[in-house]
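Subject: design request, 124 residues
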């Protein structure tokens, strides 16, 4: 029963914290990694209920935390790098680089020679 209360409290705390978080990208990245580890640890602990001998399978907790960390890192990279363009003092976007670009390749002698496609995954 206390596990159920703990899970409900943890979920409510995570939702409340995410609504008041600032736009600092480092803080967002660290928080997503932390939430990933916490969620993975909880899932790894919950898997012990489905094993015959939980005492011999305590590595499930560490495995869940590790997988949660990887998921948190991916989420953090998504939040930091693929969010909207940064705004300057007036609130307008300083520059916009589209993630998908399709453009023709043009030469001086033959005109259009072909086309190119560029997709930006990460932007530093």
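Subject: RE: design request

Done. Sequence follows.
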């Amino acid at each position: 029963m206390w596990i159920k209360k703990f899970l409900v409290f943890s979920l409510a705390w995570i939702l409340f914290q995410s609504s008041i978080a600032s736009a600092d990208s480092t803080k967002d990245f660290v928080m997503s990694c932390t939430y990933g580890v916490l969620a993975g640890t909880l899932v790894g602990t919950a898997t012990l209920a489905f094993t015959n001998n939980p005492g011999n399978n305590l590595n499930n907790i560490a495995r869940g935390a590790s997988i949660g960390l990887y998921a948190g890192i991916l989420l953090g990279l998504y939040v930091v790098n693929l969010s909207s363009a940064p705004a300057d003092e007036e609130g307008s976007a300083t520059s916009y680089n589209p993630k998908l670009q399709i453009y023709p390749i043009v030469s001086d002698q033959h005109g259009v020679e072909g086309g190119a496609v560029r997709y930006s995954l990460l932007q530093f």
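The beta strands are 100-107, 111-119.
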